Amino acid sequence: MTAASPLKVLADAIRATADAAATGVLQVRARGAHPATAAHIGPDLVVAPLHALDRDEGLVVVRGEQTLDATVAGRDDTLDLALLRVPGLGASPLTLADDTADAAQLVVAVARSWQGDLMARLASITGQTCLLRRWRAEPLPALLRTDLQAGRGVSGGLLVDPDGRIQAWVTTGLSRGGVVGIPAGLLSDRVGRLSAHGRIRRGYVGMAVQPVLLPPAQQAHGRHGLLVSGVDADGPAAGAGVYVGDVLIAANGDALVEPGVLQGLLGESRIGSGLQLRVLRATTIHDIAVTVGERAR
User: What SS3 string covers the chain?
Assistant: First the structure.
């Protein structure tokens, strides 16, 4: 009996991997809008690309011949992710990977065309992005670069590894002309937070800051800091005694050389806890404890 060609073996493996993931790769539709791929990620929960949803009302999720009403349970604009609650959808058939894929990892990209047909192709994870920083948001861990091309239905799809696990959820909404993957661990974290609170909670101290290079007379404690250019009169920083014109040198022992460092210390887990600021006022150092609040919606 003639052995199957390597190409046929590969094609069969791609098809089998896609077919196994197909029950968790759905579509979300809204009146007057193009359909988008969505992924069944938890009990009655679906993730869809935020940029593909132009409304909250009239959303339906399509699974085969079944059409189910959906409501928006939460949004994370830093990841272009919308979490939808779909009563009656049931538990997720997908398994998220508990490790992060390395560069050159081969995966099968699975999505739905606008007509609802399953699309699958062999793809590669080519590396990681640099850390993403968004205004008034905590820095994001590195995302996954792929060799996928943007196209109809690609956003909202999945990258499935050879073991049938979901390595990433993909979107075109975070990189111009590119398709990036949200690693399974980060996706799971965001789904949990959105499911619990309906949004990504972020810490708040009530200050506007900008990087500053200190003049020689003030460099006894370093050359760089964050100049406080504005203070919310009702915010935690004002209540703790921070003033406009102060220079923040460090927070919880971390040198503050650019605003992203401070933002990185204001994640959800910090809400209600203390932030130890080292503040330069003229040529005098002050240690000020600020209790982190929660940023308003």
Answer: CCCCCHHHHHHHHHHHHHHHHHHHEEEEECCCCCCEEEEEEECCEEEEEHHHCCCCCCEEEEECCEEEEEEEEEEECCCCEEEEECCCCCCCCCCECCCCCCCCEEEEEEEECCCCCEEEEEEEEEEECCCECCCCCCCECCCEEEEEECCCCCCCCEEECCCCCEEEEEECCCCCCEEEEEEHHHHHHHHHHHHHHCECCCEECCEEEEEEECCHHHHHHCCEEEEEEEECCCCHHHHHCCCCCCEEEEECCEECCCHHHHHHCCCHHHCCCEEEEEEEECCEEEEEEEECEECCC
> Which of the two residues, 286 and 129, has the higher pLDDT score?
286
Residue-level pLDDT at 31: 66
The pLDDT tens digits of the residues spanning 249-296 come to: 999 999 998 888 898 888 888 999 999 999 999 999 999 999 999 987
pLDDT 10s digits, 201-224: 889 999 999 999 999 989 888 899
Q: State how far the Cα of 137 lies from the Cα of 125, in Å rounded to an integer.
A: 26
Domains parsed from the chain with CATH numbers: 203-294 (2.30.42.10)
Distance between terminal CA atoms of the chain? 67
Enter the DSSP assignment of 93.
Answer: -
Torsions phi, psi for 164 (to 5 deg): 80, 10
Q: What is the pTM of this model?
A: 0.81
Share of the chain above pLDDT 90, in %: 65
For strand 166-171 and strand 118-128, is the pairing parallel, antiparallel, or unpaired? unpaired
